[in-house]
Amino acid sequence: MNPQTTKPTSPLHFARFEFKYLLSSTQRKEVERDLLYFLDYDPFVADRRDHKYFVRSLYYDDPGYTAFHDKIDGLHSRSKFRIRTYTREPEEPSPLFLEIKGRHNNLVFKHRTPVRRSDPNWSTLQGLKLSEMLLGEAEKSEVRDQFEYDLFRKRLQPVALIDYQRRPYISKFDPSFRITFDEQLLATKTTGLFPGGSASPRQVVSGYTIVEVKFRHHLPSWFHQVIQAHELKRISISKIVSGMVRLNIAFDEINTQESDLEDVFIQLTNIKK
Fold first, then answer.
1. Rounded-to-integer distance, Cα 116 and Cα 139, Å
2. Is residue 198 one of the residues assigned to a domain?
3. 180: domain range?
4. CATH classification at residue 226
5. How many CB atoms lie within 10 A of CB 59?
6. Which of 127, 138, 165, 203 could hold 191 in an S-S bridge, CB 3.0 to 4.6 Å?
């Protein structure tokens, strides 16, 4: 079996709606228990003991952190580039993708293109050298060409790495309806995908789980019932924005040295949609 087929897959292009919720450890157990009446594990994790997989994303922004501030300011049309893989180990043959993800009004879109790894030193590259490798190794596509255009026009650069564990579910009744539970979220200030032992990752949502609800048409009635039963409120939280705040990148309004995690998230989740 090709090792890459054992990694999570998703379409190269999609558009959908996404709702997010932030749950404490107690809430998570209760909500997940109730949702399991209506959900199955994603087939990729069904046979895993913990029903999870690892996600790593290196995010890009320009010198003025436009993508960061577009989210903070609640722009209705915004986007960001990232590199995504599913391993901590560069030697592991995990898929590698160049992605652009954004929002237009309430609709979330993502486009991705595969990246080859023919350069034997690819995992050690950082900054501009990593970006140049992407241009040479990414499959020819609109995503690759848009990245090249923005890389030089906007002077894009890698700013932070986001890692987490994901437990994915799909609806028993509609395979396009998905819910993911993301936990153990870490942020690292780096310009490389594999920063090595010198990196100092910081916990972002210790004790919390980010739940993402992904759907194309409408929310089922059973989901509304679970949300109402647990009095959950939809929030506007971004992993990369939260991570950059914890790393003190680009955002001075929240002093994370003096605030505890819960206070930070109260402020973060009040960001305008």
1. 8
2. yes
3. 3-268
4. 3.20.100.30
5. 25
6. 127
